Automatic annotation (TrEMBL):
Protein's UniProt name: HTH-type transcriptional repressor AllR
Keyword Thylakoid among UniProt keywords: no
Hydrolase found in the keyword field: no
Organism: Enterovibrio norvegicus DSM 15893
TM annotation in the entry: none
Length: 255
C-alpha cells in the first residue's frame, strides 16, 4: 500500500477487509494483507474501535464490524433518496404476482425487512419494513444461511437460539444443515409454515460483485390462498426482479 495514503484511506481499507471477511480478522493478518506496519494497523484499528466502527472478539485479538458501522450500513441501505428503484421493482413484481413482495438483508442473527410492497387482498400477513425475523425458519433467512461458508455457518448456528416458531420449524442443527444444502443447490429459499402456521414464502438471491447473496427478493402469501408449489410458478418473475436489482445496485449484468 502506498506510503502517501492518509490514515483515513488506510482506515477505510481496514474496514473494507473486515466487512468482506466471513470471520473476525487480527491486526497481524490485516497488516500482511494491506502491506502496512503492524503498529499502524493496530493504532488505526484501536481508533476505529473507540468510535464503535470495530469491535473486538472475546480473545481480544481479532476484530469484527462494530455497532456503529452496522448501523451506518443499515441506514445507508434504508435511505429513501437512493433506493427508489427498489420500491419500483418490487411494486411491479407484486402487481404481476398479486401477492406481497419484500426485499431483505442479513443483519446479525436475523433478517431485516428493507423494502416491502403489500398486496391488495383483504386477508394479508403484515410484516413491516424495518423489523427483524429469524434466519432458521424464514425463506430469506435460510437462503442467507445456505450462502455462508460451512465453518462460518456452523459457528453462527451454534450461537443462535433455534426457536420453534411452529410445529414445522427445524430446530436440529444437523437436519437444518441438510435442508440448507438443498436450498444451496436449488438457489431458492422456501418457508412452508415454519415461521407462521398460515404462511408460505419463496425467496431468491440478489447476487453482488463478490458472487454472494447481498439481498433476497421474496414473496409470501397465506397458505389458504397459495401452496408452496403454486408459489414456485413465480420463480421466473422473482429471478427477473432479482437480476434487475443486481443491475441497479451493483451494475451486474448477465454478460
Amino acid at each position: 500500500m502506498k506510503e502517501t495514503q492518509s490514515t483515513l484511506i488506510r482506515g477505510f481499507h481496514i474496514l473494507e477487509k473486515i466487512v468482506k471477511a466471513d470471520k473476525p480478522l487480527s491486526s497481524v493478518y490485516l497488516a500482511e494483507e494491506l502491506d502496512l506496519p503492524k503498529q499502524t494497523v493496530h493504532r488505526i484499528a484501536q481508533q476505529l474501535e473507540e468510535e464503535g466502527l470495530l469491535q473486538r472478539e472475546l480473545d481480544g485479538k481479532r476484530f469484527t464490524a462494530g455497532p456503529r458501522l452496522r448501523s451506518l450500513a443499515r441506514d445507508t441501505l434504508k435511505n429513501s433518496s437512493i433506493n427508489v428503484h427498489r420500491y419500483t421493482i418490487l411494486k411491479e413484481l407484486s402487481d404481476e404476482i398479486g401477492e406481497t413482495c419484500n426485499l431483505t438483508i442479513l443483519d446479525g442473527y436475523e433478517i431485516l425487512y428493507l423494502e416491502r410492497v403489500e398486496t391488495n387482498w383483504p386477508y394479508r400477513i403484515h410484516l413491516p419494513v424495518g423489523t427483524h425475523y429469524p434466519l432458521h425458519c424464514t425463506a430469506s433467512g435460510k437462503l442467507f444461511l445456505s450462502d455462508m461458508k460451512p465453518t462460518a455457518r456452523k459457528r453462527l448456528l451454534k450461537s443462535m437460539s433455534l426457536t420453534r416458531e411452529t410445529a414445522q420449524t427445524i430446530t436440529d442443527i444437523d437436519q437444518l444443515e441438510t435442508h440448507l444444502a438443498k436450498i444451496a443447490e436449488d438457489g431458492v429459499g422456501m418457508d412452508s409454515g415454519e415461521f407462521l402456521d398460515d404462511m408460505v414464502a419463496l425467496a431468491v438471491p440478489v447476487i453482488d460483485n463478490d458472487n454472494r447473496v447481498a439481498f433476497t427478493v421474496a414473496v409470501h402469501a397465506p397458505s389458504t390462498r397459495k401452496t408452496p408449489e403454486e408459489l414456485r410458478q413465480y420463480l421466473p418473475l422473482l429471478r427477473r426482479a432479482a437480476q434487475r436489482l443486481a443491475v441497479a445496485e451493483f451494475g451486474i449484468t448477465d454478460e
